[in-house]
Amino acid sequence: MPHESPTTPSPPRRPPGVRRRRGLAVAAAVALSAGLLGACGSEGKPTLTWYLNPDGQATFEAFAEQCSTDEYDIQTRLLPTSATDQRVQLARRLAAEDSQTDLMNLDPVFVPEFANAGWLLELPGDTVTDDTLEGIAETVRWEDKIYAAPLWANTQVLWYRKSLAQEAGLDMSQPVTWSQVVEAASSVDGATVGVQANKYEAYVVWINAMIEGAGGTILENPEAGVDAEVALDSDAAREAARVVDELASSPAAQADLSVSNEGTALAYMYGDGPGAFMVNWTFVYKNFEPSDANDYTKEQFDDLGWARYPRTVDGQESAPPVGGIDIGVGAFTEHPDFAREAAACITSVENQVELAVTDGLMPATQSAYDAGELAEAYPPDLLDLFRTSVDEGGPRPKSAFYATISGAIQSRWHPPSEVDPETTPERSQEYLQAVLEGKALL
């Protein structure tokens, strides 16, 4: 969740289950064994260290136990919540040629950077097959080679209270625009529109999706690296800036807009008042599903609706964000064959199904979507919406310098209350171009 990725939402409230309880037990066992045995593993076996993002942590710990073999053990280490902070921690380890960074969960946008730097081992060609959703398959390729294994594919949809949409008179059976959503929420006292607009990666996810949805792009040729052509001074970027300005200056803006993230937006859905419209990742369904882990009622859950990501401009299909998690193998691991084998085990179709059912983190393969367990766990129209949104989504620029690109955009588009459709796209165009050319510091 990304989530940030893709995303990286605050850990959602999850329904209990056998696998979850098993994962918690595994976490304790792993922590104990790590403290006693370190990198040696049990009985002299090597231990592979797998760096995790927080989403689905308990399930991942169960995968670590499941995919350990007679030849090696897998232990987990937790990365920070923010995708940006995850990147920094991993980059520091890999730049220092850390031999114990064997496996790592990566936001897809950082795969090109890490592969280009020589920090990831190439994986077998059959890591990506015809079964892999194209929206996530493209994220693991760099210079015609595969450097990561798709684990789960994330996307955002528009979540909303059905009763709120009805009160606002908004027909959710038809595609809706951002302007229509903001106007509808503004017409109901206390209703809001939830987005991710803190100064972090998920804010760029929102901006990029709106630009792509208006027919534009941030970079014309991202593969050119620092020589890429910046395309932010465009009508599409001005449309995106218009939406940011429209929401920020409306009664529908949430009070914490400038620091909002995937987790903070959740509170508005069933808090005091009529509820919210919210763009957020796939984990939301499981987060709100009534269980022993939360106090949501069946009546509240039945009021939860979903629709395709809002359109930036009327008459043009939206480009939902594409995120998820890919697993990379560190280039300096002392056990490359074991690490590749472990990555294949962790990303199996069966494990993708388990992750979706338990944690709401959706599969990266078509066959996993067709699994009977998913049909029992999710409404069929929601599954179709998730799969379509990944395949028809708008990816962020695929560049070895993506972290620089994202940082430059954040610095000129934040806070949302100061975004101006007439000036922000041009200013961000000039600044990003200067940063890429080495004429300005980030």
Summarize the structure.
By secondary structure, the protein is α/β, with parallel strands linked by helices. The protein contains 18 helices and ten strands.
Proportion of residues in helical segments: 25-40%
Overall number of strands: 10
List low-pLDDT spans: 1-40
Question: What separation lies between the terminal Cα atoms?
Answer: 26 Å
Described by the principal axes of the CA atoms, the overall outline is globular
* Overall CATH architecture of the largest domain: 3-Layer(aba) Sandwich
- When the domains are counted, the total is 2
CATH fold group of the largest domain: D-Maltodextrin-Binding Protein, domain 2
Structural class designation:
alpha/beta
Multimeric status of the protein: single chain
* Name of the CATH superfamily of the largest domain: Periplasmic binding protein-like II
CATH class of the largest domain: Alpha Beta
Beta-strand proportion: 5-15%
Radius of gyration, in angstroms, nearest whole number? 21 Å
Number of helices: 18
Give the averaged pLDDT, no decimals. Answer: 91
What are the secondary-structure elements, in order, as H or E? HEHEHEHHEEEHHEHHEHHEEHHHHHHH
Largest sheet: 8 strands, mixed
